[in-house]
Design brief:
By secondary structure, the protein is of the alpha/beta class. The chain contains 7 helices and 13 strands.
């Protein structure tokens, strides 16, 4: 039988010096084997749900599709999908995508591409983004205020990351949750690809965790030129954002945020007299 995204367990709780036993709802974590035209790509740990989007987004973000078009996605295995607990998905391109080199071992829910793709490789394959719309500080704040109400599973479990896209007015478009922050982003990007969306230039990506290189890589591959993260970016994320011409904001919480690369409309011009992204070494 297909598993849900959460399960109930009994827990012992300590509250104000008193112990009680009561049920709690926790997030399900299970492996998903991703294949491309039947060839093994990787096995990632994820929260079940939106598996097709995850598989497509994973393949697209890692550049595995090449110029091929996704013609279908399906659960697969050596028998009925239910026998494999819906934990194996193949992305179909009719054999037009390059044969992938499988990753060795499992990709954890917290793991991205693990440095297998360099910024130089990305720049050669994708080039800097062009024609990207500039987002305003007000739009980012509007999106930040709207996201919590869309995190239905986080409200029940407190155990998931969220990724969301929003437009230049700060209106939330697609929201996905997963135990892995990379998975949440893959699900959003996979949904956009499956829908045939062509509005990446007017779209920003929000992530509930830190802004790692992998997050920038996924936004870059999707053509999204603005990335907003709740937590800090890494140095490599900033470097990649510069190469991609991506605006990168971190520590976006309430009405606060830091801009590490690029610019947002609404930043006083006097602050732009020197590059906002100049390096200061200590």
């Amino acid at each position: 039988m297909r598993r849900g995204r959460t399960m109930r367990v009994l827990v012992d709780r300590l509250r104000q010096g008193t112990w009680t036993r009561s049920p709690d709802e926790v997030v399900v974590e299970e492996p998903l084997e991703i294949r491309l035209d039947g060839h093994l790509v990787a096995t990632t740990m994820r929260t079940p749900g939106h598996d097709y989007e995850l598989a497509v987004g994973f393949c697209a973000g890692d550049g595995l599709l090449g110029d091929a078009t996704v013609t279908g996605v399906r659960y697969c295995g050596e028998g009925p999908a239910a026998e494999f607990e819906y934990n194996m998905v193949t992305v179909e391109t009719g054999g037009k995508a390059p044969v992938p080199t499988p990753r060795l071992g499992n990709v954890s829910a917290a793991c991205g591409i693990c440095g297998s793709t360099t910024i130089t490789d990305m720049a050669a394959r994708l080039g800097p983004l062009a024609g990207i719309g500039q987002f305003s500080v007000d739009a980012v704040h509007a999106a930040l205020a709207a996201v919590p109400a869309t995190q239905e599973m986080f409200g029940r479990t407190g155990g998931l990351h969220a990724a969301a896209t929003f437009d230049t007015n700060g209106r939330i478009d697609i929201v996905r949750e997963d135990i892995g922050r990379h998975n949440a982003v893959d699900k959003v990007i996979g949904r956009r690809l499956l829908d045939g969306r062509d509005d990446a230039a007017a779209t920003a990506l929000f992530v509930s965790g830190r802004a790692s290189f992998e997050m920038v890589q996924k936004a870059w591959a999707a053509g999204i030129g603005t990335l907003v993260a709740v937590s800090a970016p890494s140095s490599l994320a900033i470097e990649a954002s510069r190469s991609a011409a991506i605006t990168l904001a971190g520590f976006a919480r309430g009405d606060e945020l830091n801009v590490y690369c690029g610019s947002l409309a609404g930043i006083p011009e006097r602050l732009g007299e020197s590059p906002a992204n100049a390096e200061v070494h200590s």
